[in-house]
Amino acid sequence: MKPALALAFSSLLILQGCAFAPGQYLDPDEFEEGAKTENGNVQLLRITPEMLKGDVVSDMGTASKQELLDFKPTAYRIGANDLLYITVWDHPELTAPSGPQQQLDANGRLVRPDGTLFYPYIGNVNAAGLTIEELRATIARRLANYIDTPQVDVSLLRFGSQRIVLSGAFNTAGEVPVTTAPMTIVQAIGQASVDTENADLTSLTLKRDGREYLLNLDDLNRPDSWLHQVYLKDGDQLHLPYNDQKKVYVLGEVTLPQAMTFKTTSLNLMDAIGSAGGIRQETADGEAVYVIRGAENIATETAKVFQLNAKSPTAFALAKHFPLQPQDVVFVGPANITRWNRFISQLLPSASIVGTGAAADYNLSR
């Protein structure tokens, strides 16, 4: 029986040796700069000073920024559903036909869906598209046929024709009317109030005229911020996403593997590793620090795996300048000795079973 048990033990060693590296790891020695995997949909890249000079994360281009800054609001144009208050001095029957004791709204003139309004003596007036001054002059000119040198004033009681839409992580999301006072992005956001606990401040999206502009609200804390110079116009949509999908996963040989949620400026690789308690010096392979970045459509787009050689502490200067993106996976691989130790730890229970069997066989044969 002893030769049979010895053979079984040898076979077990061979089988366990086939799984020499339990768990997940990448071999830095097989990491070829710019290479792609066999199916061609994953590209391998090293994190180097030269690479960091490129666009690791694309920011909004200078041209797009200038487009936003170039827009300057013009005089308000009257539109359908605006409520106007038209004053004709010394003619209260025209100014307040419902009586001066009524509230202002009762004496307002609503611009109809077709852009017109009715006014005594002069009938229908095409108001849509006119500025307040242009409408005032039009009414005064037509009233001059019935009233000697009419003095006309026009003001807006309620703005109903133009609006901006705010959606997402705002405390009071919804429609904000465009008024005669120009409104900046910062003013609109201040009016709606941001849900700071749950908002992704770095991914504010402005949709305008079929285009989308990605803005970073966290830039408002910086002295060179230009967001307060961006004015909004009719039809603009501001969407501030929640940060529940803005996670980075830190796995492998770190002290505290976890999923991290961040809501301000992009988390860098150094921050992520530090927040996870740092690399486990006794088990980690310093060369095997990876950032795995997927693609929206893996069938047609190329995913990327970035490698950082962190054997030297100076490598973390590079990590500090490597910004992470939502859904990135930071993986720190185990050292060879770590994989060997884990192999042994898996092997020993099996060896103990074999040893127990051998002892039982020895005792029974005596």
Verbal overview:
There is one protein chain. This protein is α+β, with helices and mostly antiparallel strands. Helices cover 27% and strands 23% of the residues. It has helices at residues 2-18, 49-52, 62-70, 92-95, 132-143, 185-192, 269-275, 315-320, 336-365; strands at 42-46, 83-88, 109-110, 116-119, 123-126, 152-158, 163-168, 174-177, 204-208, 211-215, 237-240, 247-252, 258-261, 284-293, 303-308, 329-334. The chain has a six-stranded mixed sheet. A five-stranded mixed sheet has the order 8-7-11-9-10, covered by helices on one side. A hairpin with a 2-residue loop joins strand 9 (204-208) and strand 10. Helix 1 runs antiparallel to helix 9. The longest helix is centred in the last third of the chain and has 30 residues, at 336-365. The protein is rod-shaped, with a radius of gyration of 35 Å. The two termini are 12 Å apart. 20% of the residues are buried. The model is unreliable at 4-21 and 55-59 (pLDDT under 50).
- What can be said about the biggest beta sheet? 6 strands, mixed
Radius of gyration: 35 Å
Mean pLDDT across all amino acids: 80
Specify the helix fraction band.
Answer: 25-40%
**Topology pattern, helix = H, strand = E:** HEHHEHEEEHEEEHEEEEEHEEHEH
List how many beta strands DSSP finds: 16
